[in-house]
Amino acid sequence: MLREIRPAIVLLLVLTAITGLAYPLAMTAIAGALFPARAQGSLIEKDGKVIGSALIGQEFKDDKYFHSRPSATVAPDPNDSTKTVPAPYNAANSGGSNLGPTSKALADRLKEDVDKLRGENPNAAVPVDLVTTSASGLDPDISPEAAQFQVPRVAKARNMPEDQVKQLVTANTEGRLLGLLGEPQVNVLALNLSLDRAAAK
Amino acid sequence: MTVIGWLQIILFCVIIVALTKPLGWYMTRVFNGERTFLSPVLRPIEAGIYWFSGVDEKREQHWLTYTVAMLLFHVGGFLIIYGVMRLQAVLPFNPAGQSAVAEDLSFNTAISFITNTNWQNYGGESTLSYLVQMLGLTHQNFLSAATGIALAVALIRGFSRASVRTIGNFWVDVTRCTLYVLLPICIVYTLFLVSQGMPQTLGDYVEATTLEGAKQTIAVGPVASQVAIKMLGTNGGGFFNANAAHPFENPTALSNFIQMLSIFALGAALTNVFGRMVGNQRQGWAILSVMGVLFLAGVAVTYWAEANGTSTLHALGLTGGNMEGKEVRFGIVASSLFAVITTAASCGAVNAMHDSFTALGGMIPLINMQLGEIIIGGVGAGLYGMLLFVVLAIFVAGLMVGRTPEYVGKKIEAREVKMAMLAILVLPLMYLGWTAVGVVYPAAVASMANAGPHGFTEVLYAFTSATGNNGSAFAGLTGNTIFYNLTLASAMFVGRFFMIVPAMAIAGSLAAKKSIAPSAGTFPTTGGLFVGLVVGVILIIGGLTFFPALALGPIVEHLAMNAGNVF
To answer: Do residues A8 and A54 share a domain?
Structure first.
């Protein structure tokens, strides 16, 4: 048994160096050369400043922007570090609400949000993804239904014809991969950026 | 449920079955020490490693030596992870300035990663430096996976060899698995993941000013290299807190699909390795069929339950299923499928929050883990777990006809059955025992996030996941407390090693036995009757063990939900 001690130490250190240092560092170098923008986090710049990542959702409150899904991410309470406070779309601390199917807190939150959205657009059914929080709290997408639902509000706030806003939604809708994998989706940041561009013309 | 949804599920199954044979062929060659197409590059490195570490690759080990070598290897792995976590504040690659991780959390995480559990009481981006992610976690993702596969191969050798005292060399098996199987796949896989948008950088967290002028700090890091092995090695510990639900850890529908495939690929292939090594591939297909039956049943229930939604959603007129805790790009079907896959295997990565699943939708992941994660299972661990159930099923079949049972040419006798029972019974002792403590001990009760039966399920899920070395969670439970850090660590430890040591004892005992030719009285173990018998034994043992606990948690919650109760 004693002769197993040397491999237990040396082999462990060698394999650790290969898999824990050489492999991730080499992959960082190669990935950085092959896919420089993606390896850095698919960042979007506007006027030389980073305004976010194409893959990470942002909070939108203004009526003239399409809103993202609700987010359950939190941040440490500045007054008491043992507690947390809500901080939607905190991209340094991902997470979901973790509220279960029989949670009263969830039922109350859903009712409040549904009532608010019905007031905003009484003519369409409230899409489920627009009132539920995502798993990461950073979902960059909404469903096409959730985007269409917001068209009247956005068009009104921007004094744009609804048809034009609808066209932008359609242009920003991505279908399933090969018509099969995933779900149809609209990237909210991309849609809002194209709205701003259309308005600037 | 939709046709497109089911087509995605069917496509997944077809690809896994198609991969099983070629991967099994390749892995068999690797573990038999034969030449492969990668040998010209890797053989010199392999030989150099043996020379440097003093390993004699020709010398095989007795099962006890093999097991001791494995345990020593884990002691070292534990010390490395614990060390870098405690010292991360003074070590390099720490751009976010993370401070030292607390003793109990470091202890829990170190146990968690050496046991291939990867339970996350830490929040990756808010707790760990890049160095810990690479040197602590990525390295152990490789080695705990390689260990699992090595142990499964050792047990297979127990079945396939006759009248010998040795079952292989642990150091050689681990090295070959890492170099020839895990690393080459991970290198290609990492680049694919980056092409989908997964970051791979050592740069600082990005400070962004959003379109509306708010500040957003975006955590990045060497994500892809870790995610590749986290999935392939069924480790599952996330780079980020939200794991594979985080858009950086799973950017697209395609990255999600490939991640699901990679969780199952090696585990499924090992059934073929088993068949090849015992000289009849149909033995492997029979085991894969047992796994497939249980898997598809689980997928159907979870998909149905999640697509159906909850009473709360119905009351508000919301349709489209239970989207709380799910991402739009995955939707109901890919989230449900992922949840079943990750718990059938002992992966534990999540692309949706299981805590927010419907009662029945969340019960299936729980059952998958309680059955011992034998439906494909963790790489290696799934196969040796399943073979323990096969031993029992064969024993039951033998009792029915009053004949000493035999399996792939080996007589199954008292010693094997006792060891299999020990391994199978120790798991419920851990998760049921600790759950009982967790729901009465006041400091533990305070950790529950949901009230009512769902809170009970959170605790049961935590200990089940830890014991099964899964690592997924009903994540509302506050696990980063002294109570949970220590109790979960004990569950992970017992769940891993009290399964491994009896399995190795069986390997040693079987290898020493003579091989007997099948006779007219031998129970055929490649047909439908055998598959049905094993499925039956698994469900009966499972049902008797944990049905009462499920009745207190998800079952009563489902009934309460239908009655319109909230807590």
So the answer is: no
Give the residue from chain A lying closest to B565, CA to CA: A102
If one counts the domains in chain A, the total is 2
Q: How many domains does chain B have?
A: 1
Which of A53, A69, A100 comes nearest B356 by C-beta? A100
CB-CB under 8 Å, B245 with A135 = yes
pLDDT digits (tens, 9 = 90+) for B258-275: 999 999 999 999 999 999
DSSP secondary structure, chain A, as one string: -GGGHHHHHHHHHHHHIIIIIIHHHHHHHHHHHHSHHHHTT-EEEETTEEEEETTS-----STTS--------EEEETTEEEEEEE-TT-TTS-------TT-HHHHHHHHHHHHHHHHH-TTSPPPGGGTS--SSS---EE-HHHHHHHHHHHHHHHT--HHHHHHHHHHTEE--BTTTBS--EEEHHHHHHHHHHHHH-
Cβ-in-10-Å burial (0-12, 13-18, 19+) of B205 comes to middle
Q: Are residues A16 and A49 in the same domain?
A: no
Domain membership flag for residue A94: no
Whether A88 is covered by a domain: the verdict is no
Quick: pLDDT tens for B469-522: 898 899 889 988 999 999 999 999 999 999 999 999 999 999 999 998 888 888
> Residue B455 is part of which domain span?
379-562
Q: How many CB atoms lie within 10 A of CB B338?
A: 26
pTM above 0.80, yes or no: yes
Domain containing A174 equals 43-70+101-200
| Residue B442 placed within a domain | yes
ipTM of the complex: 0.96
- Say if A93 falls within a structural domain: no
In a domain, A75, yes or no: no
Q: Which residue has the tokens 């149905």?
A: B304
Q: Give the per-residue pLDDT at A1.
A: 66
> Which of A44, A50, A55 should one mutate to test binding to chain B, selecting the residue with the greatest count of B CBs within 10 A?
A55
The answer on A48 and A13 residing in a single domain is no
Q: Is residue B201 part of a domain?
A: no
Q: Do A23 and A106 lie in a common domain?
A: no
Write down how long chain B is.
567
Contact at 8 Å (CB) between B491 and B431? yes
**pLDDT tens profile A129-185:** 999 999 999 999 999 999 999 999 999 999 999 999 999 999 999 999 998 999 999
